[in-house]
Amino acid sequence: MADTLTSFDENPHGLVDFPMAKEQTCPFDPPPALKRIQDEQPLTRVRLWDGSSPWLVTRFEDVRTLLSDARVSSNALGDGFPHFNAAGKARFQSNHTFVNMDAPEHPRMRKMVTRPFMVKRVEALRPQIQAMTNELIDEMLAGPKPADFIEALALPLPSLVISELLGVPYQDHKFFQDQSAVLAERDAAPEKVVAAIDALRDYLGQLIQAKRKSPQQDLLSELVTERVDNDELTDQDAVELSILLLAAGHETTANMIGLGTLALLQHPDQLALVRETDDPAVVSKTVEELLRWLTIPHLGRRRVAAEDIEIGGVVIRAGEGIICAADIANRDPAEFENPDALDITRDARKHVAFGFGVHQCLGQPLARVELQVVWSTLFKRVPTLALSGDFRDLPYKHDALIYGLYDMPVTW
Amino acid sequence: MRIEVDAPKCVTSGQCVMIAPDVFDQDDDGIVIVLDENPAEGQRGVVEESAAVCPAAAIFVIED
């Protein structure tokens, strides 16, 4: 291995450290070291923060194969699971949900919260999401220039939507946005992460008790009246699930709205195609291509082998960690022609930005509708939207679990 | 062309409903339902795409 990987920054153990750094001048692209690994040794062992050495999987087909293999476990409480860092480990241990469970617990628990994310239920929300988007754009346009696009639209829209869906009062948004942000910090102290989870647990626990007394048309009410009261879930389960969904609703779509909008601003030819179309199919393709090209869960899908698995000429032994690097897999030339080009006319839907297999993102229909509404509206409403400053100087979230932007000054 | 699904494997990603809404739907828990077991040839593209992107490999396109 050392023969082919001598160009990498190796630690004394001869393994490449993961994660790697992106090129400062290419904030949209995966780290160049990942590309070289994909080309030269697509299944290789890397070294993590705790000295462990899980397998890194970089090819599209291998990622799909492993993420849909029942011998590949998501159990984050056992040995060998390649945690993001000490904070990530503390988070999974404190907020234990179906994300880190295997069958049979995983499908049973996941099913408790699938209803609001059904395609037709999400489509029924589209007019409301459109109205929220229009209102946020109105407010931005009425305010001073430059405006912070993250604060004006990228964060409040998904925050409003997930609050509405769960039945969390949006007036408390400062509190739950701040706590969710702590959960997304890669380098937060474990105690800080646990404190944020505890704060959300207290808040959502009280809210769920209030929903029991006066249920409404929202997911928290449904969990308590239909699931807890029928003994399918405990009160504690309901609270842990709500923490997961509230945080997930903030960490993901907000970053995608911000970074995706920036990507379009940096590609005016592509942006023009979006601005000038009234065809939902064009907008839908734009969303899929941006999901592929940006793949914001940039630290990979983390798993552990439950049995020995032979793949691509190597054997992953039971108990060894696995990191499926979806960002570089979505740039695999064996799967996508000219993969580093942003091309919204391509058919990118098979991407693994939402993961693959039984753990593939639960909220994906909702994320898709939010992104479709934003990009079909924004450039028509604000055709002169422009970045204020140099895109290379923006504060990118290199240090977060989900990649994106801390803020993004725009003018019009 | 005949469509079969392995509903217990479905993980409710909903992608088939978005791609081929005339062929697939979801029940109250989000689990796949086949609306048209013998779709017209014109649906072949979207049906095959649905099967290809299904994260649970729960959709089968069978040639009789």
From TrEMBL, chain A:
InterPro entries: Cyt_P450, Cyt_P450_B, Cyt_P450_CS, Cyt_P450_sf
Keywords of the record: Heme, Iron, Metal-binding, Monooxygenase, Oxidoreductase
Pfam families hit by this protein: p450
PROSITE patterns: CYTOCHROME_P450
GO MF annotations, alphabetized: heme binding; iron ion binding; monooxygenase activity; oxidoreductase activity, acting on paired donors, with incorporation or reduction of molecular oxygen
Lineage top rank: taxon: Bacteria
Family recorded in the similarity comment: Belongs to the cytochrome P450 family.
Name of the protein this chain belongs to: Cytochrome P450
Species this chain originates from: Nocardioides marmoriginsengisoli
Automatic annotation (TrEMBL), chain B:
Necessary cofactors: [3Fe-4S] cluster
Organism superkingdom: Bacteria
Pfam families with a match to the protein in the record: Fer4_13
Function in brief: Ferredoxins are iron-sulfur proteins that transfer electrons in a wide variety of metabolic reactions.
Domain 4Fe-4S ferredoxin-type: 1-29
PANTHER family (alphabetical): FERREDOXIN
Organism: Nocardioides marmoriginsengisoli
GO molecular function: 3 iron, 4 sulfur cluster binding; electron transfer activity; iron ion binding
Designated name of the protein: Ferredoxin
Alphabetic keyword roster: 3Fe-4S, Electron transport, Iron, Iron-sulfur, Metal-binding, Transport
